[in-house]
Amino acid sequence: MTTSRTVLVTGGNRGIGYAIATEFLAQGHRVAVTARSGEGPAGSLTVRADVTDAESIDRAFTEIEAELGPVEVVVANAGITRDTLLLRMSEDEFTSVIDTNLTGAFRVIKRASKGMLKAKFGRIVLISSVVGLFGSAGQVNYSSSKAGLVGMARSLTRELGARNITTNVVAPGFIETDMTDELSETQQAEYKKSIPLGRYASPTEVARVVTWLAGDDASYISGAVIPVDGGLGMGH
């Protein structure tokens, strides 16, 4: 039985984040989610926060700490895409994706680390993407932000590891979410051809890897990148 923890999932109001929050709840944890709009799953505490705004993150943590206790597990999942080819990509389209996906994770972890260092315990899980290491045309901004999370996790491991704080990366491939539902059947079939397992993952398949990394069984794993991509990236 894994110890019950206070968990924060950023961007927990839809897609993979919602599935991660749901799975933590099912395993008996106290779960808060940040969302700019919408709500997390039933039983979670939804707090309004924008990862591009450090003050809103601080307020969210203060609220969670008062309601659920100090945050012991952080899942940095909030992310955006603004896909376009390099020559058409504006500087704002590049920097806004970095600011949410990479700097946003930094802001959340910096605030969470205060309580973790005090408790001499913490589990940090960064949600990256197969694209972070595999690359993808039209996603120079997104893949840069997701690759950056790997360097972040490894540096945090060296900096915080001795305090019993682990930091790992989960890199999902194609997942059945609203985003993939919008693809045409032809596009879907084309994508599935490139995945050795021949199918997309369910959001729960990603969520269970995240909860495992945050649990007692993975206490000696840190600085790892775990692909949940059906063999698409083959550990690039």
Automatic annotation (TrEMBL):
InterPro entries: KR_dom (IPR057326), NAD(P)-bd_dom_sf (IPR036291), SDR (IPR050259), SDR_fam (IPR002347). Gene3D superfamilies: NAD(P)-binding Rossmann-like Domain. It holds the Pfam family adh_short_C2. Residues 5-178 form the Ketoreductase domain. Belongs to the short-chain dehydrogenases/reductases (SDR) family. This is 3-oxoacyl-[acyl-carrier-protein] reductase. The gene is fabG_1.
